[in-house]
Amino acid sequence: MKSLPYFCRGEVVRGFGRGSKELGIPTANFPDSVVEHLPADISTGIYYGWACVGSGDVYKMVMSIGWNPYYKNTKKSMETHVIHTFKEDFYGEVLSVVMVGYIRPECSFSSLEALISAINSDIEEAKVNWTNPNTSN
Ligand SMILES: Cc1cc2nc3c(=O)[nH]c(=O)nc-3n(C[C@H](O)[C@H](O)[C@H](O)COP(=O)(O)O)c2cc1C
């Protein structure tokens, strides 16, 4: 993918709210304008990279781009899980991300547990893909 690394930023908007509640893995959704600006060669799937909320610290992230086949969404979304435990939600704040690499295509799963375990493997992969000299993440 020639567009990688790809940088984008946008205000965090509300998704369906399933990330935290059903999956136990909070995800931050970008507005449609950010999704629509994605270069054509960035395919749907799961990516890893770095993220920062407002002017806060930089953490690793995993991002899902697409239609969430498990939930059969009709609208394409970009959902970022920042690999850090935040004290509070950050709806309305500006999330800046740089997508560095591709992990896998989006899949449908036979159970919620299988989806959760795939996302946890993505997080593990993002953690081992490179070492960050500044943090223990
Ligand atoms: C790293 C990562 C990988 C994901 N992989 C998939 C996937 O393979 N299939 C799928 O249907 N959804 C996948 N999702 C999307 C979740 O289903 C989605 O984040 C969840 O439905 C919460 O959405 P909401 O914020 O709109 O409520 C993934 C999300 C993340 C952060």
TrEMBL record:
The keyword Transport does not apply. Pfam families: Flavokinase. It comes from the Eukaryota. This is Riboflavin kinase. One of its GO terms (biological process) is FMN biosynthetic process. Catalyzes the phosphorylation of riboflavin (vitamin B2) to form flavin-mononucleotide (FMN), hence rate-limiting enzyme in the synthesis of FAD. Essential for TNF-induced reactive oxygen species (ROS) production. Through its interaction with both TNFRSF1A and CYBA, physically and functionally couples TNFRSF1A to NADPH oxidase. TNF-activation of RFK may enhance the incorporation of FAD in NADPH oxidase, a critical step for the assembly and activation of NADPH oxidase. Residues 1-131 form the Riboflavin kinase domain. It catalyses: riboflavin + ATP = FMN + ADP + H(+).
